[in-house]
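In this section we walk through a basic example: taking a raw amino acid sequence and producing a predicted 3D structure, encoded as discrete structure tokens. The instruction is simple. Fold the sequence below.
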Amino acid sequence: MTKYKVWFSASYLKKSKRFKRRHPDLLNRYKKTLQLLELNPFHPSLRLHRLKGELKDLHSVSINLQYRITLRFVIKDDLIIPVDIGSHDKVY
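The resulting token sequence is shown next.
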């Protein structure tokens, strides 16, 4: 099984810090989402899907029904780069 690498940009880390501060109740779920993303980004509970329109180069995974992480999913390098985190309306 391929293990994927999640790489965090400074920009994403700033957004993630703000998200965690605003949503401390989701911290465990967020961590679990990132762990699962590294192990198996295609796991059904993540609901990985490619976005459309202006965001067509990005994918999205679910933290829960309300919150998402948008990301660049570079399959050839087994690299996952989170781009944004937040509510469905904020990241789309």
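Looking at the output, two observations stand out. The chain has a mean pLDDT of 91. Residues 10-22 form the longest helix (13 residues). In the next section we compare this with other chains.
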